[in-house]
Amino acid sequence: MANRTVIRTHRASIRNQRQVRDGLDTLGFAAAKLWNVARYTVGRVWDACGQIPDDSVLKSYLKSHERYADLNAQSSQATLEELAEAFKGWYGHRRNGNTKANPPGYRKNGDDHPRSTVTFKEDGFKHDARNGYIRLSKGRNTKAHWSDFILCAYDADPDIAIENVQQVRAVYEHGEWRLHIVCHHEVEVEPPGDGTAGVDLGICNVAAVSFGDESLLYPGGSLKEDDYYFAKKRAKCDDSFSREARRLDRKRTDRRAHFLHALSKHIVAECVEREVGTLVVGDLGGIREDENGPRDWGDHGNLDLHGWAFDRFTTMLDYKAEAEGIEVEPVPERDTSKSCSVCGRCDDSQRVERGLYVCDDCGLVANADTNGAENIRQKVLPNLATDGDDRDNGWMAQPAVRLFDRREGVFAPREQVVDHEP
Predict the structure, then answer these.
(1) What does pTM read for this prediction?
(2) Which domains, ranges and CATH numbers included, belong to the chain?
(3) Residue 303: pLDDT band with limits 50, 70, 90
(4) 323-373: pLDDT as tens digits
(5) Contact 210, 393 (CB under 8 A)
C-alpha cells in the first residue's frame, strides 16, 4: 500500500440559498463586468499591433481599474486568466487555418450582464469543515454597506469528506448557485500489478493501447461526427453569439468532455483488469510545432489537430490512473510511428498506408497505431526492444476495437455498439 494525493472537484448545493443569493449575484455580475473590460482591452491591443496580451499583462494593466476591486484580488486574477486562455485557444484556431473561429465574446444578455462563475483561491475563502460552511470574500468595492463576506452553508455527497480545500468556484446552474469545491485527498492505493502498457494518441484513432501480448484501438469517428453535426446546426444560426449558438457550443463541449472522460476511464479499467502498474503515454507536447515554428499538417489536418485536446485527455488519464495505483509515465514520441517494434528498423517508407505498417527487414505486418503504442511501451522496457526473440506478434495486426456507444455513453466492443444519430 502507498499513500497518494489526488485532486477531486466535488459539487455541493447551498442550503441557505435565499440568504446568500443577492451577494453571489453581485459577485457574478462583477466577474462578467471585469471580463468585458478585459475583453475590450484585448480587442484594442489586437487592433493596434495584432498581438494578444497574456494574463500577466492584463493583471498589471487592469489592477488599478475600478472593476478589478469588485472581486477579491485572486478572483479577479482568475477571471483574467480565463479570458487569456480563451483568446489563446481562438488564436490557435486562426494560426491553424480555421477562419470561421470566433474570438471570445462579451458577457451580456441583451443589456444585462449574466452571472459569471467566480473562482476563490486560498486567500478568498475559509472552510469550516465541522459545521459545513464556506466563507467567501468580497472585493473592496462590494463590501460597502454589506457584510465583508458571504457565508454559504453547503451540502455535499455524504460519502465524501470535504477536506484540504484548495479552491472554490461559485457556479450559477439551472437558476441557482452551487459550489464546486476542489480538494486534495490522501488515498491508500495498491498497484494492480507490475505489467506495463503503452498508449499512442492520434486523430483518426484517438488512442491505441498495447499490453505486450494484445492491443486495443479506439477510433475517433464519434468525435468527428459530432463536430460535423454541430457545425451544420451552428451555420443555421443568424447570429454566432445568439443564445442558440451558445447552447450548441456548450452541448458540443459537454459531449467532447464526456467522450474523453469515458475513454480515459475505459483505458484505466482495461489496465486494472490486466494488472498493469505502469502506463506509458506518448508526449505530444511538440506535435503542433517544430524548430521552424508551427508545423503544417494541411488544412484538414491542422483543424483536426487543434481540436484534439491532448493535454486535457492526458490529465484525465493521469488522475484516473493515479486513483487505481497506476503510475503514468510520459515519454517522447519521436520515431515511434516509423520504427519497427520487433527489430527496431526506422524508416518512413515502412508505413505503407495510414493504418498499415510493414517492416522490410523482419516482415512484421501490424496496425500502424498498435506498432506505435508498442514502441512507446518499450521506451521503459529497453530489454524487450530488438532482443532477437521470436515473440508472437500476430495480435499487432488485428487489435481489438472499442467504439463509443452514444446510447450508453461508454466504450464497448464493436459488435455491441448500435449506431445512433448525434
Answers:
(1) 0.69
(2) 2-189 (no CATH), 195-416 (3.30.420.140)
(3) very low
(4) 888 999 999 888 788 888 888 888 766 666 668 888 888 888 899 999 999
(5) no
Note the pLDDT tens digit of each residue in 401-421: 999 988 888 998 877 665 555
In this structure, the chain runs to a length of 422
